Amino acid sequence: MKKSCYLLFACLFVGMSACISLDVDVELEPVKDLVLSVENNGYFSTDGLSYQFEILDGNGGYKATVSKNRFDEDEAKVTFDGTKVTVDLLEQFVSITITDQKGETASLSC
């Protein structure tokens, strides 16, 4: 009886050891700061109804959050073409926050 218990524990130990891997080969990609080509601390001005800038560095998967006017409508329309960003102004003053897939943000306003 005692031998069978030892044998059972030995088998369990070997079985559990085989399932546990101590090698961790996961290479974490560093989080990059989100950098825009907008100067002047994120403030831009334009004479037209459209403004373009580039995303110089970031983690991909970009989204834009646009400020709302008093009618709860977006104050601009933002479109992405790779790292090129176009802002079509619908109001005179607007605030935009760009967010990437790792949660890094950059803000700009007009």
Q: How much of the residues is beta strand, in percent?
A: 25-35%
Number of helices: 1
Largest sheet: 4 strands, antiparallel
Low-confidence segments, given as residue ranges, are none
Instruction: Based on the coordinates given, report the CATH architecture of the domain at 35-109.
Output: Sandwich
Q: What's the β-strand tally?
A: 7
Label the overall shape: elongated
Structural class given helices, strands, pairing? alpha+beta
Mean model confidence by pLDDT? 84
Radius of gyration: 27 Å
Widest sheet, order of strands: 1-2-5-4
Report on the architecture of this protein.
Strand 6 (95-99) and strand 7 (105-109) form a beta hairpin. The N and C termini lie far apart (82 Å). It contains one helix and seven strands, in the order αβββββββ. With 110 residues, it is of the alpha+beta class. The chain has a domain at 35-109: Sandwich (Immunoglobulin-like), CATH 2.60.40. It is elongated, with a radius of gyration of 27 Å.
How do the helices and strands line up, and which of them pair or pack?
Layout: H1 2-19, E1 35-36, E2 50-57, E3 63-66, E4 76-81, E5 84-89, E6 95-99, E7 105-109
Antiparallel strand pairs: 1-2, 2-5, 3-6, 4-5, 6-7
